[in-house]
Amino acid sequence: MDNYVNRYYITEVDRHPDTVYCHHAVMGEKFIPEHEHRKGQFLYTEGGVVYLNTPEQSYFLPARHYIWIPAGTRHSIHPSTPEVIMRNLYFPVHACDDGFFARTAIYPVDDLLMELMMFTNRWNGNIHPEDESRYSIAKAFKMLLPELSRGALPLALPYPDDTRLVRIVNYLDKNIGENVSFKHIADQFGISERSLARLFQKELNMSFIQYFTILRMLKGLKLLLDDKLSINEVASKVGYSSLPTFSNTFTRIVGVRPSEYVKHRGLWDRQRNNNIKHKS
Questions:
Q1: Cβ neighbours of residue 91 under 8 Å, at least 6 residues apart?
Q2: pLDDT tens digit sequence for 161-191
Q3: From CA 156, how far away is CA 272, in angstroms rounded?
Q4: How far is CA 225 from CA 49, 81, 94, 221, in A?
Q5: Helix (H) or strand (E) holding 78
Q6: Left, alpha or beta for 41 (phi > 0: left; psi -120 to 50: alpha)?
Q7: Beta-bridge partner residues of 106
Q8: Residue 168: how many other CB atoms lie within 10 Å
Q9: In angstroms, what CA-CA distances link 134 with 9, 19, 101, 115, 119?
Q10: Does residue 226 or residue 149 have the better pLDDT?
Q11: Residue 3 above 50 pLDDT?
Q12: What are phi and psi of 176, to 5 degrees?
């Protein structure tokens, strides 16, 4: 498998406006700097988790999920390990495209989408319209995405601009395992609860509870996948004394139960190790 650090493909993606570009590779390094494409991007990863940053938000892409990145969206990619495998399909933009393709979002991958995606593993580079067989399959893949991806998951957190809120969210990040209440934050930072509530809604378009809950679940995902902690340990580290409450909240936010991640974690590790051996 090619090494992702071979950057030639980034310029090749847009060289032919009407092609579908396919690229499967081991990441090979710690990040891909900020860039953009004139094509929409389907990105799936194996063997670790990936952080994807845009000017507006920070996204967390765990295993068994994909992110759709609309054309023209500036983004940088930061994997948890250089051994992460990235599977990319880049599609031309058309005026008749579904509104689905205009939004950056993360979706779970079901068995059908997984089979279709793995079928493309044999492809690399440009798929031209003249190659009717492969191009038709690639077009069908894109057309199916809105049908197979009904529920976007809130695995993203917006960046605040207000300096007061920047300090507050940094505090929350550092005290993720504590029982931090809304009143505690208001008192800690010398702001009324009413003003604080308005600040969260105005700056982040979500409440304090929504923000802190998503932050805890994203941290929980990282601890499960990267640090290999047990579900009990993770629940405690992100501030939940009740395992059922943590599990139910995790399922609501992430879309699958934490036990599913633990069950498949060994498989993903073996996949990654096999790909490292293949690479060497």
A1: 20, 39, 40, 41, 42, 101, 138, 142
A2: 899 999 999 999 999 999 899 999 999 999 9
A3: 25
A4: 7, 11, 37, 6
A5: strand 75-79
A6: beta
A7: 67, 153
A8: 23
A9: 19, 11, 21, 15, 10
A10: 149
A11: no
A12: -60, -30
3-state secondary structure of 277: helix
- Specify whether the backbone of 153 is left (phi greater than 0), alpha (psi in -120 to 50) or beta: beta
Q: How confident is the model at residue 17 (pLDDT cuts 50, 70, 90)?
A: very high
Set out the domains of the chain in order of their start, with CATH numbers.
8-148 (2.60.120.280), 160-254 (1.10.10.60)
The sign of the torsion formed by the CA atoms of 246, 250, 256, 261 equals negative
Measured CA to CA in angstroms, residue 93 lies from 41, 55, 279 at distances of 10, 22, 33
Instruction: Let me know how long the chain is.
Output: 280
Residue 24, classed as helix, strand or coil, is strand
Do 21 and 90 form a contact (C-beta atoms < 8 A)? Answer: yes
CA distances to 127, 182, 219 from 272, in Å: 27, 41, 22
Cα gap 59→144, rounded to integer Å: 23
pTM, two decimals, is 0.75
Per-residue pLDDT at 253: 85
